[in-house]
Fold:
Amino acid sequence: MTGATMPSDLQLVASSSRGGPSIGHSIALICGGGTLPGAVAGAIARRGLRPVMFAIRGWADPKVVERHAHHWIALGQAGRFLRLARAEQCREGLFIGALLRPPIIKIRLDWHTIRLMPRIVRAFHGGDDRLLSGVARLLEEEGVRIISVAEIAPEIVVPEGVLGRHQPSARDRADIARALQMIAALGPFDVGQAAVVAHNHVLAVEASEGTDNMLNRLVELRAQRRVTTAPGIGVLVKAPKPGQDRRFDLPAIGPQTVANAARAGLGGIAVAAGSAIIAEPAEMIAAADRAGLFLVGVAGDGGEGRTR
Structure:
């Protein structure tokens, strides 16, 4: 007797579930690049929940993704994501990991997404926060509630206070305050979430290049003697934009941030406590201690954010 063929999407779900926890309360992680998706998935699993990775092709790291139940999706495949999320019993989801906004003409659309295109196009006409909030509304209308990292993995949210052996000086604290003012002032223009200040002088402001490339640019400016402050002076500060939806694109730091800040000749790193996330906390604190950099979570993030 010949049995019916299981639909391909359900075959993928069955395959992804082998060897892992039984399907119960599952959380969908729509993930881009970097190590943060793995850190969040691990935190979810430690809570007795089941992470399901929806890895974006071209961005997510296979080595991170393949440790958990996962499916690969392309940008623009809302229909595929929703089918798989329902089959995996994912009632909640979150966005995590690095991803740059693609040109709208390069998004691979499925039929479900095509039906939503008028609303997606409207969301594209604005900053990243507007785009992500618009996508979240569409997914929530389909039954997947979008949550923040802080709700599901509070242990990777940066607390207030000094995290390593080294302490910021009074001069460093003044530079941190200056940088927070700069980020808050530029936030409405959706410019970025990071700045470098030394001796009350703004050395760099993050734009679309991202924090690591901003720090690499600072290394080049030092080599060109366009920046002449002594090594060990200056602070990298990261904070969310005023009014930013805290479910998306929170400032993130990790061991690579420490390496790049040290190469740029800075004295330390400060981030908005409760509004930034840290990949591999133990490794990063150890790296900062070895490099002689202070690492601190500070109060104040440029204004109240939204969580819905």
Summary: The first strand starts at residue 26 and ends at 31. Residues 76 and 114 are 9 Å apart (CA to CA). Residues 157-298 form a domain with the Cytidine Deaminase; domain 2 fold (CATH 3.40.140.80). The mean pLDDT is 85.
